[in-house]
Design goal:
two-stranded antiparallel ribbon, 45% helix, 2 domains, 6-stranded antiparallel β-sheet, Helicase, Ruva Protein, domain 3, 11 helices, 8 strands
């Protein structure tokens, strides 16, 4: 049994948005199991955890690059948002995004590659810039998408400059149709991905464990309402359908026309282009998502600087 500490209660409250006492009770009821406590709160209707994305806490830039039917995306972190406006740092991210194309999104390979115009590897160039700019930096992650015939479209949200920003998206469309029209469609779908943040490409790709977890929550909620077993299963089926509409890209309402799904939008575009279009993949990097940022007590910092204990 994990100890139910004040810090654990605080983390659960920030993760779920539930009240402090509810979080404390949830942890007590689940023997300190954090994930089980989230489910407990959701079953009681006290948490919006499923809709809350990972906590965004670090700074830097996300960069994208494309070449032919291939695209790459990379995240480079720094300590403050000030460095994202630094020309040297921006060039680092741009160069690393281009190198990520050749490395096919392998971040460890990118680190060992020769940095353009310098007699250093990428990792050594990062170390050099840490000393030059005065901030810690990290090449956090990278990935790539490609198609045999078609396009990999990109979109950057809150762009610092072309190809660099806080949210980067790649969308792969396989088709023999007009490249310019495919790219335009791909960018619109990428904008949708940036806004809707789907978790899965299609229904077939939904993680079985995630789906079973959702079903268990729905069954408990329906059973708690006193519904008979046959009604419970019908309610679960309906909730699963709604779950797909929330987290599966192809099932989501298209942000450019919320009367149709993303799948329907692609089918409509295929008729206009005159060739079948297949959405084969997407990637979305949100700057710093999932990284816990250190919280500083400003009053304590001032007191420490003044020598007050």
């Amino acid at each position: 049994m994990a100890e139910v500490t004040a810090a654990l209660v605080k983390d659960l409250r920030e993760k779920t948005g539930a009240g402090m006492m509810d979080c404390k009770k949830a942890l007590a009821e689940t023997a300190g199991d954090f994930e089980a406590a989230i489910d407990w709160l959701r079953k009681k209707g006290l948490s919006a955890a499923a809709k809350k994305s990972g906590r965004v806490a670090s700074e830097g830039l996300v960069g994208v690059a494309t070449q032919g039917p291939m695209g790459a995306i990379i995240e480079v972190n720094a300590e403050t948002d000030f460095v994202a406006r630094n020309d040297q740092f921006q060039k680092l991210v741009e160069d690393c995004a281009t190198l990520a194309l050749a490395a096919k999104g392998d971040i460890e390979k990118v680190k060992t590659m020769a940095y353009p115009g310098e007699s250093r590897t990428v990792a050594e160039q990062v170390t050099h810039l840490v000393a030059t700019i005065g901030e810690n930096m990290q090449l956090r992650r990278s990935a790539a998408l490609s198609v045999g015939k078609g396009v990999v479209a990109t979109y950057i949200h809150t762009a610092t400059k072309p190809g660099l920003g806080r949210i980067g998206v790649l969308v792969a469309l396989e088709s023999t149709g007009d490249e310019a029209k495919l790219t335009a469609l791909g960018k619109q779908i990428a904008m949708h991905v940036a806004a809707a943040n789907p978790q899965f490409l299609d229904v077939a790709g939904v993680d079985a464990a995630s789906l079973e977890r959702e079903k268990a929550i729905y069954r408990d909620q329906a059973a708690a309402a006193g519904k008979p077993a046959d009604i419970v299963e019908k309610m679960v089926t309906g909730r699963v359908r709604k779950y797909y509409e929330e987290v599966v890209l192809t099932e989501q309402k298209y942000i450019m026309d919320d009367k149709i799904t993303v799948t329907a939008a692609i089918e409509k575009a295929a008729k206009e282009i005159g060739a079948p279009i297949k959405l084969t993949g997407y990637l979305r990097f949100g700057l710093g998502e999932g990284i816990q940022k250190e919280e500083k007590d400003f009053a304590a910092e001032v007191a420490a600087a003044a020598g007050v204990r």
